[in-house]
Every structure is written in C-alpha cells, then in structure tokens.
Amino acid sequence: MLKINNLHVKLEEEDKQILKGVDLEVPAGKVHAIMGPNGSGKSTLSYVLSGRDGYEVTKGDASLDGEELLDMEPEERAAAGLFLAFQYPVEIPGVGNMTFLRTAVNAQRKARGEEEMSAADFLKFIRAKAKDLKIDADMLKRPVNVGFSGGEKKRNEILQMAMLEPKMCILDETDSGLDVDAMKLVSEGVNALRDSGRSFLVITHYQRLLDHIKPDVVHIMANGRIVKSGGPELALEVEHNGYADILAEIDA
Amino acid sequence: MSTAVKMTADEINADQRPASGAWAAEARADAANRLASMGLPTRRDEYWKWTRPDSLISATPSEAEVFDNQGEPLVFHEIDRLKLVFVDGVFDADASDALEGEGLEIERLSTAAEKDIHWAKDLYGVLETAGQTPVKRPLAAYNSAQATDGVVVRVTGQVSRPVSLIYRHADKASDAILHHVIRVEEGARLTLLENGAAAARFNQVTEVDIAKGAQFHHVRAQGRDHDRQAVTHLFTRVDAEAVFKSFTMTVNGKLTRNECVIEIVGDEAVAHVAGAALGDGADSDFHHDDTVFITHDAVACESRQVFKKVLKNGAKGVFQGKILVKPDAQKTDGYQKSQSLLLDDDASFQAKPELEIYADDVICSHGSTTGAIDEEALFYLRSRGVPTPIATDLLVLAFLADAIEEIEDEDISAEITGRLDAWLSRRRG
What we know:
The structure holds 2 protein chains of 2 kinds.
Chain A: E1 2-11, E2 17-26, E3 31-35, H1 42-50, E4 55-64, E5 67-68, H2 74-80, E6 82-85, E7 92-96, H3 97-111, H4 119-132, H5 137-141, E8 143-144, H6 150-164, E9 168-172, H7 180-193, E10 199-204, H8 208-212, E11 217-222, E12 225-230, H9 233-251
Parallel strand pairs in A: 3-10, 3-11, 6-9, 9-10
Antiparallel strand pairs in A: 1-2, 1-4, 4-5, 7-8, 11-12
Helix pairs in contact in A: 2-3, 6-7
Chain B: H1 22-38, H2 54-57, E1 82-87, E2 90-91, E3 100-101, E4 104-108, H3 109-114, H4 126-130, H5 138-146, E5 151-155, E6 163-168, E7 175-184, E8 189-195, E9 201-210, E10 215-222, E11 229-238, E12 243-251, E13 255-264, E14 270-280, E15 287-296, E16 302-312, E17 316-325, E18 333-342, E19 348-357, E20 363-371, H6 375-383, H7 388-404, H8 410-428
Parallel strand pairs in B: 1-6, 5-7, 6-8, 7-9, 8-10, 9-11, 10-12, 11-13, 12-14, 13-15, 14-16, 15-17, 16-18, 17-19, 18-20
Antiparallel strand pairs in B: 1-2, 3-4, 4-5
C-alpha cells in the first residue's frame, strides 16, 4: 500500500534537514504506528505525504499502490486514496460543515470518474456516519470546526475519513487534546473503518491510543529516521521506559 | 462646459427639465440651483479622490454592450413580487404588473410630478438636500433636477410581497436618470428588490422615509452588465424604533459608486447597510466604490456597515464610510466593517473609515482589513480532495457570508448566495 523509500526532507525556508532517510512500508489492511520524541519528524512525515507547502524533498520517494505520491497535488493525493487526520484541524468560518463534506466527497468521486452523489443520498450517508460518531445535526450545520471543542474537532476528522473512504489513513496525533471518553469514541470510529483494503499510519506520542487502536507494527522515529520497528510490545516498552533507553541502545 | 453634463441653473433651464406640475417644477428648479452652487465633482475633490467622476459627468456616456443572458432567468425570478420594469430608464407599463397592491400606493414619478399637489413634495429632493451636508453630492442634485422617471411609493400596511424594480438595458448609448421616492408609514413594512442592467450609464437616487416603527428592507443585485457605469444614492431618514436594512450585491461593472446616506432621527432605530462585491478585472475594468455616511441624531440607535469585496486581475475597490454621532445621540451603537480579499497582486483596495463622535456614552468601532486567501484553510480543503479553484471559491463565498447574512429573508439570501456561486463557477469553466 504505502511505500516510503529513503525519504530526505528539508524545510523550504531554511536549510534544516528534518527527515534523513525514512524507510517504511505499510501493507494493505495493516495498522502501523509511529512513535517518537518531539522534533523527531513524525508530523513532518505526515505533512510531506499529504503535500503541504513549505517542505522540499531532497532525496527518496513515496508511493501509494505504486503511484508516485510526491509529484501529485494535495487534491490528487486525496483522490488517490490518501487521508490525513490533522493534529490541528483548521477552522473555516463561513463554510458549512455539510457543504464542505459534500464538496469533498463529490470532488473525489469526480476525480475518480464516478458519478456525483445526489443531495438526498449524501444526506442519508452522512447522517448514518455522523450518528456512529455522536455528531449531531447542529455540528453538521455549523461552519467547519468553528467553535468546536478539541474532541469535536477530532471526531469531525474521523467523520471526514468515514465519508471519504480512503485507502491509506494517516492519523497525526489524533489523541492530543482528547479526554478518555473522546479517545474511546474516536478509536471506535477508526476501528470501524479497519478492513483488509485499508491501511493506517497512526502517529502518536503515547501508548494509550494504541490500547484502543491496536497496531500490527510499531516504529520508533528519532532524528528524522525510523530507528527501530517491532510489534505492539515496543509501544509498551516506550510507555514504561521512555524513549531515552531505546535511543541509547541504538547509539551504542 | 460642452464636455460635461449640463449643470448650471441656466443650462438646465425650464425647457429642458421634465414637464411638471407646481411642486415638482419647484423641486427641480431648487435642485438645479443646488447643483449650480456646488458644481460637478472633480478629481481634486477629497470625496472623489479614489473614483474618477469623469465618465459619470461626460456630456454623453461611453457606449455599453447590451448583455445577452441567453434566456437564463434573472435574479429573484422565483420570488413572488410586484414587478416594475424600466427599459433604459423609462417605465414600461406593458412589461410591468399593475401599479397596485395591498397596503401600497404606487405611481410613476412622471404621473405624480404632473399633479399640482402631492405627498411626495415633502420628500422629493428633500432627503437628498439633507444629505448634502456636510459632504456635497452633486450627482444626486443633478439627478433631482433631471430625473424623468421613477416610482413614488407609499406603504401604509404590511405589504404581502416585495416590490421589485427591474432594470433593462436595450440601447448601447442610453443615459438613464431615475429617481424613486418611498415613504413607509408608521408600523408598515416594505421589501424592495432591484436588479438588472439599467442603461449604458445610470444615475439613480432613491429617497426613503421610514416612519416610527416601520421597516424597510432593500436587496439590490448589480451584475452581468460588464460595461456598467453607475452612480447611485440612497438617502434615508429613519424614525424611532424603525428598521432600515439594505444589501447590495455587485459583480462586474466598469464603474459603480453606491452612496448610502442615512440619518437616524428617532430613538431606538436600527440601520444596517451591507454590500458584497466580486470584481474580476479580466472581464473589463472593474471599479467599485461604496461610500456611506451615517448620522446618529437620536438616543439608543444601532447602525451597522458590513462591506466585503473580492478583487482580482486589476479590479479596484474603494470604501469610504463615516459614522457621525451628534452630541445628544447617547447610547449609540455604531459598527463598521470593511474588508477586502485580494486574489492576486494586481487588485487594490482603498478604505477610509471615519468616526466623528460628539456624545460621550457610545460604543463605536470600525475595522478595515485587506488580505489574501487563508493558505491553511486552502490546504485543508485540498487535502480532502477539493481542487484549488473550487476550494478558493468556497473560501470566497465564506468571506462574503457575513455581508449576505445581513439579508433577513432566507429565500432572498439563498438566491443571492446562489447567484454569487454561479458567477464563481462560470469563471471556473
């Protein structure tokens, strides 16, 4: 599904290398987690994959189902099946959540050569998905993320994911700013989307999210590279001992 | 003065003024004298610093192509309304509905003007004259002296449907001067709609007197006529507990100057004026000027100005807005917002917000901003698969939303949003 090969990325504005050779492969139907200390390059990886401005790829490549990702515009990546759940979802005053979602769903269908969804079908579709995530009609009517609590914003991200049905979902610190109940709700939303054709890359600081969204593989990222990979037990090790031990072990 | 419109009292002699009865003849002669004493605007006038008056005062207008809308229904077509049609500034009775309606007295200006006595005497040119202080507005005086047509409307009750003024442009060289007079009596309510390309050049004055507890809602759509050169003045006097709300959508147009002069004279009145303009200099030149003057002369009144402009390809926007709070106008709540969204480096926006306050217990604020598309929001939309042009247009409509929200009627507001959306999507191709 997702293949990242020796990816090197620097900031466009300053001569600062953030990713220094990331190798990663997430097969179809699998959940991979990336953990790592602050500044290790986790969020940069998610932004570069989704096509945000401000980064320059100096070496390496990334592909989704064999399609070269890094040459595509952000909207093309989305149409190809990539989805990034933002760490900080953006507020867009004046654009209704429903309008936003319908525009997005139909734009992707159009890009894939499918027919646009009728207003009635869309309404039925979104109501069912919103109910699972306990998103009420009012939240759908309000402007995108405006006045939403931290938990509401994250639920709204998962709703978008559920509506857009991407192949490859990247969750960037989806647990940040969530209380226990909200985390459970968000995790249930994610777990409901797990299937053999869909992969997840879950980026997080903490192990607790991984109690709810059980990963197949855990990677540790430090200083712009994946330094260690293992099973779910690796997350527990981080939880108990912090990153220092693992990093010391690698340096040694 | 052969290169300019006739302006002195001698030039606008009695022969050249429209035939009129005693009251109208007097009002027109007075207006001609007012114009003679103030003179036509020049670029040296502070009030015309950013908008060149030349094309508005030249002896003949520059020609304007008649826009072919290819049979597409015009704005408001689904709204049930009383339709009054003007072609190149001349009332077209055949194309219009009958001049009657529950709670309404409607006459053509020319009919009212022929009478020797008419209630409009107390308003025609009167609100315009009041609006000449402290800033002179010569093109409004010119209109009062020269207007040949228009409507005179008296509202005595709850009018069941909006009165809709539909302007049609048929002659490439037409020079239309329309003058409307509206009196909304105590407790009555009127919604006035206006749309359509009026003429090659259009000078319009509307005087609206809103009595105690009455409501006047105004929604105007200026669009589709790319060569439009228009100057409009809306003068209103708002009495106690009355409501005045005016919204204008403007797209295209070489030169449009909309002046709104509001005098709040009764306590606890509300006056809102808003505008949403979309200008693309690629169509033809686009210059849009909103000039507003609100005088608070009563206690506990609220005024609100919300103007939004989206400009690209050399389009120019101007805003001049003033709130004057007189010494006794305590508890005034005055708010003014003027914002522009510049979609490229060629577009420009100039704003002059002014507050002049003589009362001590007031809340007045103003904000004027110029900005570009929010890159964060744009990326967020694109990351969800929305292509850049559609994402940009969504953000443009979002930017205009708080001006459009000033329209109270939901059907009319949805109609305006739909038209703006259609304009944007036509440009996406």
